[in-house]
Design a protein that fits this description.
alpha/beta; 5-stranded parallel beta sheet; 127 residues; globular; Rossmann fold
């Protein structure tokens, strides 16, 4: 199976603090794990705000994901156009593009966000 991790799960994976519900998907060697370029963008923006509660090196996260065997999924115009068709359950633009990417690519989105998990389709709540 292919799984796209939401940004929060990527940060928890990097910190070694994944919720137990996510571990079984991530540790299963037959699963392909993906991250979105939108997540790296989100992490970079949040990091650049200089908040004391968000001290993360986006380049280290990116390189760590690639080193751990994750595959990057680039955001395309097709993904962006699909956002418009999503019901407005969740207003976070990063989460909405992740959902559009997963839907478009036939990938299951793993999330720790209960609201995001309410979307129809292949979304699995692991929080």
């Amino acid at each position: 199976m292919k799984y796209l991790l939401d940004t929060q799960l990527l940060l928890w994976a990097a910190a070694g603090t994944l919720p137990s519900g996510a571990v079984r998907y991530i540790e299963e060697v037959s699963n392909a794990l993906l991250f979105s370029s939108a997540s790296i963008w989100e992490i970079t923006i949040k990091s650049s705000l200089g908040r004391a509660d968000f001290v993360v090196d986006p380049a280290a996260i990116y390189n760590g994901l690639l080193g751990a065997g994750y595959v990057e999924l680039a955001v395309t115009s097709r993904h962006a156009l699909l956002v418009r068709a999503l019901p407005v359950l969740h207003k976070d633009p990063y989460d909405r593009i992740l959902l559009a990417q997963a839907s478009s690519e036939g990938i299951t989105l793993l999330t720790a966000d209960k609201v995001l998990a309410q979307y129809p389709g292949s979304v699995v709540y692991v929080g």
